[in-house]
TrEMBL record:
Chemotaxis phosphatase CheX-like domain residues: 55-153
Pfam families listed in its UniProt record: CheX
Protein's recorded name: Chemotaxis protein CheX
Transmembrane spans: none
Keyword Lipid metabolism: no
Sorted UniProt keywords: Chemotaxis
Record has Nucleus as a keyword: no
Coiled-coil residue spans: none
Length: 169
């Protein structure tokens, strides 16, 4: 069953948002990170809010609705993506700040793509600067009474997740 979300006169389906996020993530990874073998596995079987040895980038949304775009990557994959993005080997990427900057930029690019989807429907949004959370064990809770579009992706055995949480203002 496909959920729909209504903002004033505009209705957007969860499937439409998920398809846009899939296309955006694949384009970002292909053109900016030079990784072409990303495969989506939508819909997510069960919600994920607890992360182990991961890095999460988040960008807040405000305007027609409030919410958050998130990208949650395992540490090893975040380091690999950073190396590829910067034209380095994985061994050369040792600064946590470089990895955090790369994950923040990936999240920012995805948030920009989400903003375009809604802007094309005359729903205007503003984006916050990216925030990063990382650690061996942490939880990120979904906001109450909201919708969440969660799209898992795989690169080989590595799984990462792109999320959009939205709430009518």
């Amino acid at each position: 069953m496909d959920n729909s979300y209504t903002f004033g006169d505009v209705t957007v389906t969860e499937q439409e948002v998920a398809q846009h996020m899939v296309a955006a993530v694949k384009t970002i990874f292909s053109t900016m990170i030079f990784i072409d073998d990303i495969v989506e596995d939508y819909p997510l079987e069960k919600p994920v809010s607890h992360f182990h040895c991961s890095i999460s980038g988040m960008v807040g949304l405000g305007g027609a609705f409030s919410g958050m775009v998130g990208v949650h990557l395992p540490e090893d994959f975040a380091q690999e993506a950073t190396a590829s993005m910067l034209g380095m080997t994985v061994e050369e990427v040792d600064a946590e700040s470089d990895i955090n900057d790369a994950v923040g930029e990936i999240t920012n690019m995805l948030a920009g793509e989400v903003k375009m989807l809604f802007s094309d429907k005359n729903l205007h949004l503003c984006l916050s600067t990216p925030s990063i959370i990382s650690g061996k064990d942490y939880t990120i809770e979904v906001m109450n009474n909201n919708c969440a579009v969660i799209v898992p992706f795989y690169r080989g055995e590595q799984r990462f997740i792109a999320t959009l949480q939205i709430s009518a203002s």
